[in-house]
Fold each of these.
Amino acid sequence: MKHSMYENWILDFDTLTQEQKAELEEHLKACQHCALFAEAERSVRHLLQEAPMAAPIPGFRARFTERLAAKRAAQHKRQVSITLALSAGLAGLLGGGVIVSTLMLLLSSDTVIFRLFRDLFHVLQVIVITGSAGKALLGSLGGIVDPAYAYTIAAAAVVLCITWFASLYRIRSIQERRE
Amino acid sequence: MNSKAREAEKNWIEAARKGDDDAFTNIVDAYQGPVFNLCYRMLDNREEAEDAAQETFLKAYRALKRYDSSRKFVNWILAIASNHCIDRIRRRRLRLLSFEDTVPVEDHKSKQPEAAVYESEHQEEIQELVGHLDQKDRAAVILRYWYDMSYDEIAGSLDLTVSAVKSRLHRARKKLANHWMETNVVENISQGQGHETFYV
């Protein structure tokens, strides 16, 4: 217990009062453990203060430039992939919209299938608008948000939209049945 | 750092923020030593330290727009390096726990000549010592002794309070002194040098 107190005093020597310093000096003369601890603390401090700086092998700057270029190329590739995927998705949605609207024109307005296509078309319209807004947002955040996070956020937003519209569709169907 | 060097550093940072890569590589040139040394002291492996130092500069490059110029640039970049190394050590431990991989062991025989020159017995002794500390204590000790950082600066770099830094440094120094004492006692006993006079 006493050793521990004097060890702490050795470590915080600069903050001690004159009386404490004198008491510590007296204790060090009598206690071999604390004297050894004081010596060890001095040795460690000296070793750390005198330790040289380790240097990297020459060419660090050139290796950094190469790595930066490689990272940039990878980032560019990712951005192109995202743009292509979003464009393909939007094209698919637009194509689907065109097919649905054509079918709507061909079918009679009182059939169940017509109503289904009409609602689906509305859902698709909202998805297309949301997708375009999302793409614009991702474009403006490019370089700030990590692409992995951007993918996750976009996927979560799409799932939420689908769930939302599915719920709306169900509510509307129930209301229609009631009417 | 004199006022001329500080002015040059400020200009490089401004230019790098505007997308000038050459300006940023000047920063890399200026700080590769301190950053590499910190990574090496933290990770105790030259190859891993090189990789960590390179990653530190890449992180700094990406985060340069968020750099607060009222803070010393060297402290900012060393903070990035410390936190990166702390994360690496954590991941290294997780890998060890999962038994999927092992910690890279220094192969002293295959080291490059430059490394062999400075990695003397003295260096190994230091690395062996700081290797006994947990990652945050190790970072605090390195920032204090190699970079003369104040408690405030260390707290800012490691996202700790000043009292936590003081407490960590106190604990770390105690641990290092105890380890030093134990090692020397064992060495002296094994060499038959008056072990009766040493506390065990």
Amino acid sequence: MMDPERLKVSNATKLERRLLSAAGDELPSSELTARMRQAIGITAVGAGAGGSALAATTKTGGLAWISAGLVTAALVGGAVGIWSSYRRTTAAHVAPTAAPAQCMASVPVPAENPAAASNTTRHERRRAHAPALAETERGDLRVEIALVDEARTALREQSPRRALALLHRYALAYPQGTFGPEVEALRVEALDQSGEHRLASSLARTFVSQHPDSPLAERVARSIDDRP
Amino acid sequence: MARGSLFLVPVPKGGEAAEAAARAAVHRTRLERMFTAHHILVWRILRRRGLDPETAADATQQTFLIAAERLDDIASGSERAFLIGTALRVGYAIGRKVLRWQLEDDMDQHVANARDLSDAQSAIELCDLVLSKVDPALAEVFVLFELDGFSSIEIAKLLEIPVGTVASRLRRAREQFRAVAGRIDLALQREGQEGNG
């Protein structure tokens, strides 16, 4: 299928072109970019973007990256504490997919870069005035991912009951979780896979009506439409 | 690796440690490259969902943190698709929970405040105002196509919808966008600003 011409280069009015160009050219400020790099753990202030990672890795013998994930997690909310409290809440059923990056990011290595820590402290102070994500939400992120991941894996392995149990745990632990819609979509699939077609259809309809603009709505709707 | 040990992974020793460090360095470099190549696009897509710059930055961070967790699962060459798909979901979740559209409903007042459209910030704010009036599912396709240069096929894959749906959403999004932009144009002309040429 041939794409139409972009509005900006075809028959846009002068105003439309101006609006589209301005929005399409918008850049994050250098401060925001530095902040993002810091939070992700790839900070190299003053270094060129391309070489900064290598430079930092060389200086710290690779340990910086091992600690990066944990530093990030710790800085945004005390991940270990959250994990401990999460384990108390959800028993021992979280079995992360154990991707190496995830595991390495989780090794409790002390911060290698005190400057980064101090920068982040300033950043945290700035964030106190910003309408941003709650720190604990971000700290919980990896645990949420682990649960959703395992539910997906269970579905792939044709274990809908296990998937449903995991999704139930997620809903209990994270009633306002980041992946709420994903969990609901997975629940539809799990119910369908377990033979609860009527319930799956009902949930799917509810999902689509409650989240009409979700990227998942189309998929959920299709999953029940496609069923013979 | 023992299961259920998300934060309690024993530090490897000897050769294993060297191997882990090497692998960590590779991951870090890859994440760095992904960030350098795509963070502006990710941030901008989140901005066009109505998030303010700071919150868009937070959501961008979250997107890359998810990517960091998933590096081994992201096929080479599909980094951009992964990041955009993740950003859309993160943005959706944030919008649902915290932010909502923070744009004023009173369009005429907003237009009156945009005194100088040669100023990029005013133009950006007006663009976001217009987009806020477009149905969100349509606006998503519009932004990806018109502002970020994705093809219909790429958008279909990102949003997991048929290509025909992308085309129809784009067509309707354009109609809505242009209708609102037309209203703004008239308002600007009333204000004595340069409008449509």
